[in-house]
Amino acid sequence: MTSAMEQRRPLPTDGEAILNALPNPVLLIAPDGRIVDANIAAESFFEISAQFLRRQSLKELVPFGSPLLALIEQVRTSSSPVNEYKVDLGTPRIGGDRQVDLHVAPLTERPGHIVVMLQERTIADKMDRQLTHRSAARSVIALAAMLAHEIKNPLSGIRGAAQLLEQQASSEDRLLTRLICDEADRIVTLVDRMEVFGDERPVARGPVNIHSVLDHVKRLAQSGFARNVRFTEDYDPSLPPVLANQDQLIQVFLNLVKNAAEAVADLGTDAEIQLTTAFRPGVRLSVPGKKSRVSLPLEFCVKDNGSGVPEDLLPNLFDPFVTTKQTGSGLGLALVAKIIGDHGGIIECESQPRKTTFRVLMPVYSAAKQHDPSNRDDVPGTPSPASQDAR
Description:
This protein has helices at 4-8, 14-21, 40-46, 50-53, 67-78, 122-150, 152-168, 171-194, 210-222, 246-263, 332-342, 367-370; strands spanning 26-29, 35-38, 82-88, 99-106, 114-120, 206-208, 230-234, 242-244, 272-279, 284-285, 294-295, 298-304, 346-352, 355-362. The protein is of the alpha+beta class. The relative contact order is 0.10.
């Protein structure tokens, strides 16, 4: 039933409705620097209601000496629009790293008033970084093939020689021969895990219910490595199926949830992992070999309240051999990035203390895509084995 307050609230004008429908924050700035109006996206960006924004001066919301203030004065003086790219508007309240593209223009109907539109670079940068991740994964594929051929064969000879020496060695020397065998086995295991990146066989894909995948991963986690962690879910029940291989998605989210469980292991009863799904229209990615952009509206997140990922590792977190764990090999997240990339999606990490989010964006399943001969979705294959070592 509609509340009395909602009944009294005036309907927005067409102009207000259009502004509020825009996904980008829009502000109207008065000649004295005060914010006159703001759309819903601006409320979300600054984490302040429009009513409160209208009582603020812009310089109170942006960093001291921000280029945005100078751009507004430039536009006011020249009466012509100006664009600026990769400007950091981050503050402790809204987050330390909020890079945006700025579009500043005069409002001719109201002299002295300036319209400011912000476009966060997050999605564009994610796409750029994801292409870098895929390039890194291709480098590892070549490296894995070389290692398998050039290292595993000599290692078997070294191990065999050590076993022969062990038969005639003293008790002290047997410790050394056993050490040689153990280290040879460890290197072979590492090479075997790297060979996963070289598996280019196509896999069968079809409509997958992501909630079934996440529920399965949650059950596995709660029965093992995350039995003492509190799980919460925020699912969109109307979400359409994702075009994917179910076994590989289980690998991906099992890795991400295992990482999250290890990140919150020292929090005791406060340890929490949140699984979320949502539909985010408007995200489209250019994929090599495809004429049209691929839409990635499905968003799946694994969030934890652990200590977070060190800031210096974030840009390269999905590269091979990058890890925050003392005993980790740094291949788990590289494998996750490869699987998601092979599915035509992207993955990104946003992290700060007590709030780390791994976000996966993927395409929607459709019958037309499934039978498109340019896709390899309907060709059977064998999924790669999961890597349990990640961050």
